[in-house]
Amino acid sequence: MNQPLIKLEEIVKTYYGAGAPVRALRGITLDIGEHEMTAIMGYSGSGKSTLMNLLGCLDKPDSGSYTLAGYEVMALAPEQLAFLRNRLIGFVFQNFNLLGRASALENVTMPLIYAGIKSRERQRRALEMLNLVGLKGREHHRPNQLSGGQQQRVAIARALVNRPRLILADEPTGALDTSTSHEIMALLQNLHREQQLAIVIVTHENEIGQHCQRIIRLSDGMVVNTEAVKNQLRAIPAK
Ligand SMILES: Nc1ncnc2c1ncn2[C@@H]1O[C@H](COP(=O)(O)OP(=O)(O)OP(=O)(O)O)[C@@H](O)[C@H]1O
Ligand SMILES: [Mg+2]
């Protein structure tokens, strides 16, 4: 078998705040394959976002090991970690996290500025990504001139523009109505298929999970169940 893209072993994460320590993750062991589309589900407080932050190299566990694309994450220096994150991972958030005063095009171009790509190439790639997510003709709209679903498409284009191998999406449909949620899931399914991406989606909604190939369920900081989805839901992408 090929090496998985993500390999977690006995990951433990505790938050030390004002009150008693919170053991948010209590020994997570799991693999996620290259090109796999996975949902992480579980009730509020079960550790989903904590797990996503660790997967995204935004935070470090107390103990355990995390291998991402063959790199032992815990052993990397902060600047190596930032490099790995920028190269390998695209992030999508519940509330889109777009820059309000920048156009769709400028929002998508942003990660390429940090990656040191020249202006003309930035424009070309950002336009290509906006086209890919179905936003041709909306390049110069600002977020408040776009619907929620369109804003999430901009955010997905931005996540894709550095050509990552992994998309991490924490509740990407949490702020959207049902039919828009299905459109966004159809887009993610297409990207998964056509761009050969691994996608990890946190969701509360069973229906959203059913669009993925596998559902990992967390409870109280532990994996309680992993199931393959037999008949994946396929939404028809709206044009
Ligand atoms: N920065 C923090 N400091 C202290 N405790 C935290 C912090 N972040 C999360 N926690 C606690 O860790 C546990 C797991 O939180 P997490 O945000 O990972 O849950 P979640 O599954 O994403 O929940 P939700 O579905 O509500 O988003 C919770 O008990 C939470 O209160
Ligand atoms: Mg959360």
Report on this structure.
33% of the residues lie in helices and 26% in strands. It is globular. The mean pLDDT is 95. It is α/β, with parallel strands linked by helices. The protein has a single domain, classed as Rossmann fold (3-Layer(aba) Sandwich). The chain has helices spanning 48-55, 78-88, 104-114, 119-132, 148-160, 178-194, 206-209, and strands at residues 6-15, 22-32, 37-41, 63-68, 71-72, 89-92, 166-170, 198-202, 214-219, 222-228. A hairpin with a 2-residue loop joins strand 9 and strand 10 (222-228). It contains seven helices and ten strands. Adenosine-5'-triphosphate (ATP) is lined by residues 15, 17, 22, 24, 42, 44-50.
Oligomer type: single chain
Question: How many domains make up the coordinates?
Answer: 1
CATH class: Alpha Beta
Total strands: the figure is 10
Largest sheet: 6 strands, mixed
CATH architecture: 3-Layer(aba) Sandwich
Distance between the termini: 38 Å
CATH topology-level fold name: Rossmann fold
Share of helix, binned = 25-40%
Task: Based on the model shown, name its key terms.
33% helix, globular, alpha/beta, six-stranded mixed β-sheet, binds adenosine-5'-triphosphate, Rossmann fold, 7 helices, four-stranded antiparallel β-sheet
Question: What would a concise description of this structure say?
Answer:
It is built from 7 helices and 10 strands. With 239 residues, it is α/β, with parallel strands linked by helices.
